[in-house]
Design brief:
Elements lengths: L1 H5 L31 E5 L3 E3 L7 E7 L6 E12 L4 E6 L5 E8 L13 E12 L5 E7 L6 E3 L5 E3 L4 E5 L7 E11 L8
Antiparallel strand pairs: 1-6, 1-12, 2-12, 3-7, 3-11, 4-9, 4-10, 4-12, 5-8, 5-11, 6-7
Length: 192
């Protein structure tokens, strides 16, 4: 990584110990994430139409079962038409129309559809009358105002797991956004 940052081959033995190059990875700059095979991502704006009487709209982020990455969700934003609670759940029933999340780094290779995408996906649905999965947070919404849902801790998704935000009011249009990052997993991290 030092070579990538400074743009040259460095022999650490050529430095005096008092000026040894040091990086604190926990305090790294966002642009260095790519050198660690970490990708920042967003779902972008995901609008969902009303689904019919008694059905809740929802947006979901999925780490696909075929993935070899760890997906970390850091923020969620939701907006409904009326003031209603927005439950956030883990491992809800799978929604539909999987689409790759958008990389927030233009150095990530562009997918065939024209966006720089990552391994994690977003899915939507508006055809279910129940809130599924286990609830990790629930935030009151404000009519027509986007509510940033500050998760108590980032949600870490192994392959095959998802996080979902629901509109707490049935039969209404809904908009949601997710943000996070993902990185390649070590084999021992994928054992469940």
């Amino acid at each position: 990584m030092i070579r990538d940052v400074f743009g040259e081959e460095l022999e650490l033995s050529t430095f005096a110990p008092e000026i040894m190059p040091v990086m604190i990875l926990e305090a790294d700059r966002p642009e260095w994430k790519l050198q660690k095979d970490e990708f920042l991502w967003t779902t972008g704006r995901i609008p969902i139409g009303a689904g019919g009487v008694g059905n809740f709209s929802r947006v979901q982020v999925l780490n696909p079962t075929t993935s070899v990455r760890i997906v970390v969700v850091t923020h969620v934003k939701a907006r409904g038409i009326v003031a209603a609670n927005h439950p956030v759940t883990v491992d809800a029933a799978l929604a539909a129309t999987p689409t790759g999340n958008i990389a927030m780094d233009t150095r990530v290779p562009v997918a065939p559809v024209g966006n720089p995408t990552v391994a994690s996906q977003n899915l939507i649905a508006n055809n279910n009358a129940v809130v599924s999965g286990y609830v990790i947070d629930e935030v009151p919404g404000v009519a027509q105002v986007g509510v940033l849902i500050q998760l108590p801790n980032p949600e870490i998704l192994l392959p095959g797991h998802n996080i979902t935000v629901f509109d707490g009011t049935g039969n209404e249009a809904f908009v949601a956004y997710f943000w996070g990052y993902e990185r390649k997993a070590r084999p021992e991290e994928l054992i469940q």
